[in-house]
Amino acid sequence: MFTTAEFLQYTQWSGIATLVFAALAVLAFIFKWGIRFRLVGTTGFMLVLTGGLFALSLVPLSRTVIPGAMKYTLVYDNGATQAVIATSPQISPTQLEATLRQAASNLYSYGRLGSRGDNYLTIRARTLIHPEPGVSVPLYLGQIKRTLATREDPQMLVEIYQEKFAQLPKPTA
Q1: Which UniProt keywords apply (predicted)?
Q2: Tell me, what's the pLDDT at 38?
Q3: Cβ 71 vs Cβ 89: under 8 Å
């Protein structure tokens, strides 16, 4: 993944290319070249591209990596206060806690709206178990609540449902 410093470097090169295309467009109008309107379009495109690269150089695109977290899939997100992630059935309680903390960090956004007065994002973790062939049952293993007010929330409330781990299939050797 590119860093902000790399995006700033790309912005500089794109800015130089934009100036070159603008100069060519001016020359095309002075000498009445047939491609003068195409050069105006190309210059406009380069302006948009340079602006986008500049914006990417200001905001980091990195995801939080928490040691011990496992891969998860976002299953449901209402864009406000609720989300559900799916994990592997072979997850341990400590891995689940790390995975919930990583999901809480990655799913945080300034654009989420707290509805009904609760200003918390609740993320529930579930997995699928198969008690018999052809039957899938969702099993909720835990949840985390974090504030929507600030990016860093030191008081996230993590709940791990220990009794649900007994229902998980045992790994075969």
Answers
A1: Membrane, Transmembrane, Transmembrane helix
A2: 97
A3: no
Helices H, strands E: what count in the chain? Answer: 4, 5
Q: Among all chains, which residue has been given the structure tokens 């989420």?
A: 112
Q: How many angstroms separate the CA atoms of 101 and 83, rounded?
A: 13
Instruction: Return d(Cα 24, Cα 41) in angstroms, integer.
Output: 12
User: 104 and 123 in contact (C-beta within 8 Å)?
Assistant: yes
What secondary structure does DSSP assign to 41-93, as a single string?
HHHHHHHHHHHHHHHHHHS--PPP--TTPPP-EEEEE-SSSEEEEE--TT--H
| Residues whose CB falls within 8 Å of the CB of residue 116, separated by 6 or more in sequence, listed in order | none
How far, in Å, CA of 138 to CA of 124, rounded? 12
Q: Which tens digit of pLDDT belongs to each residue from 77-109?
A: 887 889 999 999 989 999 999 999 999 888 887
CB 102 within 8 A of CB 108: no
pLDDT digits (tens, 9 = 90+) for 66-85: 899 999 999 998 878 899 99
Q: Where are the domains of the chain?
A: 4-58, 73-165
Residue 114 has pLDDT above 60, yes or no: no
Instruction: Output the pTM of the full model.
Output: 0.65
Q: E strands along 17-114, which residues?
A: 73-77, 82-86
